[in-house]
Amino acid sequence: MRHVPCFRWVLTLGVVLFACSVGLYAAGSDPPEARQIDLTVLDEKPDGSCRVRWIDPYQKRAREASYRCDPGRSDLLKAPE
């Protein structure tokens, strides 16, 4: 009875599958670009709570909501009086 090199076949199959997965990963689509959102501070309270407006980059419409602002930030970044 002849000895069958099972380990070599399993190792070869594993290397081939790994190479295929690397090839598919490299050929896959690039991740979507991150979209930047510019917040406009409409109103700010001394405790750091703010009311902001931004343009939703996915639905292309203006939105308003409450936000937690940093009360210690520079005066250039604060809402106009």
Architecture overview:
- The chain is of the alpha+beta class.
- It has 1 helix and 3 strands; from the N terminus they run αβββ.
- The protein has one helix spanning about 5-25, and strands spanning about 40-45, 50-55, 60-70.
- The chain has a 3-stranded antiparallel β-sheet, with no helix packed on it.
- β2 and β3 (about 60-70) form a beta hairpin.
- It is rod-shaped, with a radius of gyration of 28 Å.
- The mean pLDDT is about 80.
Furnish the topology, listing elements before pairings.
Layout: H1 6-27, E1 40-44, E2 49-56, E3 61-68
Antiparallel strand pairs: 1-2, 2-3
Short description:
The chain has 81 residues and is of the alpha+beta class.
Index terms:
single chain; alpha+beta; 3 strands; 81 residues
Strands of the biggest beta sheet: in what spatial order? Answer: 1-2-3
Structural category: alpha+beta
The tally of beta strands, per DSSP, is 3
Uncertain regions spanning at least 5 consecutive residues: none
Number of helical runs?
1
Topology order in helix (H) and strand (E) letters: HEEE
Major sheet attributes: 3 strands, antiparallel
State which percent range the strand residues make up.
25-35%
Helix content: 25-40%
Indicate the mean pLDDT.
82
Rounded Rg: 28 Å
Query: Termini, distance in Å?
Result: 92 Å
Principal-axis shape: rod-shaped
